[in-house]
Design goal:
Length: 674
């Protein structure tokens, strides 16, 4: 029986295959998909035309006269609209929201810490600028991609890297649909020297030397290469793919040269925890996914890459704006009317000497008015101006970026008209804003997945606390619970309307429904806290003003204790710390007396023995600390000696500076009568 063609196609990528089989099977789908997107789908031409419209380079490769090319009118209307949208939909870093894996106080705190750590990471590494560039690429090139990877060479314990991948350097399966994991996605990595490739893939050194074209061999029969050969450049493909092994979802990664001669390396998807505990792997994602975060905007669901763009829709109107603008400019250049001279009255030599200077003078024979006349320029019809204005308006309507939304004076007579126009524009921009938020959700989920896989050691982040001061957030993979759900707060990337928030806060203040701290924050330009946080503050302020005064300083969470608790709950014994603080013991004790510990025992009864063993070790450390403290404390005899010295010092001071026994003050100096 002939195997199903679909199963055949989904099974062509398989890590079980030999290198030769893989090279044979992957070459055709990658080359076919590349040709489809570049030519059949037309991305090469589309991206070039859109880029010319954005630069602006509207008249490139157009048939115009030389004098027109030098002075051609180009109005950057599309550029302004694209940049306005990039700024508006990325006015702020999208705020992640993490739902806890369990309904406990500790789980809630862990979820909040994961959210704050991811936001602090995004702030530290300027993810806002990365999203702004991706939004620009999406509008110009119909696609945008962010890649996340772990680089162990950064810092003490390595760090996650977020980087932009140009859309033209991505080859995705041509049959992939919107929002699905494609069968494969390949990144084109250009201009890598053979020397660098040999360092990246040491096990494939001989293959790389073959690609470099060397034929020299050493005494062991191994290929060796000259520096000149290793300095040459090579383009490779980094291919992430999925396949099914006996019905089980699998994911792999391989590197091949762009001519499909050698497989430089291959492995399972490295961004996944494969070790199972009780038959379950500890991951955030449902399946091992490629590390690329894609952006989509104008799509009907049939294509992985958008089927059109706003620039393409507005390009015709932009050409009209440029054409009408050139006509107006050309007419203005000819506004100085032409002159006609009577050569019977003025010689050609005199005409040639005339420059138009106001102090010029020339003599004529006969009536002066008959010697020269001016020819008025032709007036452009009103529809030329009206057509330009209408084309401008059409571009603004397509993008949703009218004057007031770009920060210009709209010309409206009332503030209400301006607000109405802004609301209309933001409604139009809302669709691309939601598409950016969709990508932000994918980004934060993948970021949490990499933290879960690679943060085996403590990573610290600085985050702004409720009191405006910096808090230090520690993140470790054990602190990221299974079962958390990551979303993004709606509209958190859009500009904050400070005036509207201040009006809202003032209205609440008049009703007595807001606490002073929130009112002061909003008045100073900060964002309103979440409704839940506002309610907590208000209730605390109304019920216990003294507790409210110290609310911002209260921190009942000991992150070291919480990290060790999570390790214990996972069935492992954490390393006992060299120093145990009172805060650590208090948090640990409160946890064991609460519902969180009981729930942990229900899930894994065996962790009780781990807790007991761990607490014995903690108790030993505490005993050592107390013993050291006692050795450092002075004995009673030493205390008595110190007290005696203090008394003697005081008595000597009284002798030198006697005091009045009635007042306790030094006596006033006596004076001799004169």
């Amino acid at each position: 029986m002939k195997p199903d063609s679909t199963n055949e196609s989904t099974g062509i990528f398989d890590l079980k295959l030999t290198d030769e089989q893989l090279l044979t099977l992957v070459k055709e789908p990658i080359n076919t998909s590349k040709d489809y997107w570049d030519n059949t789908f037309g991305l090469i031409k589309i991206r070039k035309d859109n880029m010319d419209m954005w630069l602006p380079n509207h008249n490139k490769d157009k048939s115009v006269y030389d004098y027109q090319e030098e002075n051609m009118y180009q109005e950057p209307r599309i550029f302004i609209s694209v940049e306005t949208i990039c700024s508006v939909v990325n006015a702020r870093i999208s705020m992640p929201s993490v739902a806890p894996g369990q309904d406990t106080v500790t789980s809630n705190q862990l979820a909040e810490d994961v959210s704050r750590a991811m936001f602090a990471y995004s702030t530290k590494y300027q993810i806002q600028d990365i999203f702004r560039i991706c939004t620009r690429n999406l509008m110009i090139k119909r696609a945008a991609f962010i890649k996340l990877r772990f680089d162990k060479s950064i810092g003490k314990h390595g760090e996650i890297v977020t980087e932009i991948v140009l859309p033209e350097d991505i080859i995705v399966d041509k049959d992939a649909k919107w929002n699905e994991t494609p069968r494969f996605i390949a990144q084109v990595i250009k201009d890598k020297s053979f020397e660098e490739l040999a360092a990246l893939f040491p096990e494939a050194t001989q293959k790389i030397y073959e690609l470099a074209g060397t034929s020299r061999r050493n005494g062991k029969g191994e290929l060796v290469a000259y520096k000149t050969q290793l300095s040459k450049k090579q383009t490779i493909y980094e291919v992430w793919f999925k396949y099914f092994d006996e019905g089980v979802y699998k994911a792999g990664l391989m590197w091949v040269d762009n001519n499909f001669q050698k497989v430089l390396g291959k492995m399972d998807n490295p961004n996944w925890n494969y070790e199972e505990k009780d038959g379950i792997t500890s991951n955030i994602l449902d399946n091992p996914e490629p590390p690329f975060i894609s952006f989509n905007y104008l799509n009907d669901g049939s294509s992985y890459i958008d089927i059109t763009s706003t620039i393409e829709q507005a390009s015709t109107m932009q050409k009209i704006v440029d054409k009408r603008g050139f006509q107006i400019m050309d007419s203005a250049d000819q506004a100085g009317s032409g002159k006609i001279f009577n050569t019977n009255m003025i010689t050609k030599e005199d005409i040639a000497r005339l420059t138009g200077s106001p102090d010029e003078s020339v003599g004529v024979k006969g009536n002066v008015s008959d010697a020269m006349m001016r020819v008025p320029p032709a007036m452009l019809p009103n529809y030329v101006f009206e057509d330009k204005i209408d084309a401008r308006q059409q571009i603004d309507d397509i993008f949703g970026t009218h004057d007031i939304s770009r920060g210009k004076d709209s010309g409206n007579k009332t503030l209400g008209q301006d607000k109405l126009q802004v609301n209309q524009d933001y409604t139009r921009i809302d669709e691309i804003s939601r598409s950016v938020l969709r990508s932000a959700v994918k980004y934060y989920k993948y970021l949490a997945q990499l933290m879960k896989v690679y943060y085996t050691d403590e990573h610290w982040f600085k985050a702004t606390g409720e009191d405006g001061q910096f808090d230090f957030i520690m993140m470790k993979n054990d602190l990221i619970e299974d079962g958390i759900d990551i979303t993004v707060e709606e509209g958190s990337n859009m500009p904050m309307n400070k005036g509207q928030q201040q009006e809202f806060a003032t209205g609440l203040a008049q009703l007595g429904m807001i606490d002073p701290l929130t009112l002061y924050e909003v008045g100073s330009g900060m964002q309103l806290p979440s409704p839940k946080k506002m309610l907590e503050r208000l209730m605390t302020f109304q019920s216990d003003p003294m507790a409210f005064a110290g609310l911002a300083k209260t921190d009942e969470v000991n992150r070291h204790a919480m990290a060790d608790i999570m390790i214990l709950n996972n069935g492992e014994l954490p390393k006992i710390r060299n120093e145990i603080t009172p805060e650590y013991l208090t948090f640990f004790t409160n946890y064991m007396l609460g519902i969180g510990y009981k729930e942990a025992l229900k899930r894994k009864p065996e962790v009780e023995q781990l807790y007991m063993a761990y607490l014995q070790g903690v108790q030993a450390i505490v005993a050592e600390q107390l013993a050291q403290l006692e050795t450092q404390m002075p004995t009673q005899k030493e205390i008595d000696v110190q007290n005696q010295k203090a008394v003697q010092t005081a008595e000597m001071g009284n002798t030198i500076n006697p005091t009045d026994p009635t007042t306790g003050q030094p006596p006033k100096p006596t004076t001799t009568p004169q």
